[in-house]
Amino acid sequence: MSLSLTLLLFILVSTVSVTSTLRNLSPAAENKGVWCVANNKATDEQLQANIDWCCSYEGGFRDCTPINPGGVCYEPNTLRDHASYVMNLYYQNLGSTKAQCTFNGTGTQVRKDPSHGACIFISY
């Protein structure tokens, strides 16, 4: 086998291998650790208050565009899902401590990644 044919074969095999590996990785698969989400006891009013606060100046202007119409985390369009997303942003950006996930009794820490589809819940 000539050197150029061997080199071409090597490049083809390497490209297929790398492409297959990259296709199988998702940002959600790389997340490890603990997330903060809304608990099942939280009322709609409490969840809306959490969203309003986390997306406000006082809450630190978390990036709430993913939960807006057309955003990657808009669906499912529920207060619980939207609140969980912004509560987790707050929690992750302020040190990931249990105290950062209380949200007046409406938050809970989980070890199962709540990410779904293109909606990635970060975990540091």
Automatic annotation (TrEMBL):
Which keywords, in A-to-Z order, does the entry hold? Answer: Disulfide bond, Glycoprotein, GPI-anchor, Lipoprotein, Membrane, Signal
Q: How does it sit in the membrane?
A: Lipid-anchor; GPI-anchor
Q: Where is the X8 domain?
A: 34-121
* Extent of the signal sequence: 1-21
State the compartments where it is located. Answer: Cell membrane
User: How is this protein annotated for GO cellular component?
Assistant: plasma membrane; plasmodesma; side of membrane
- InterPro entries per UniProt: X8, X8_dom_prot
Asked if Chaperone is a keyword of the record, the answer is no
Q: What is this protein called?
A: X8 domain
Q: What is the lineage of its organism?
A: Eukaryota, Viridiplantae, Streptophyta, Embryophyta, Tracheophyta
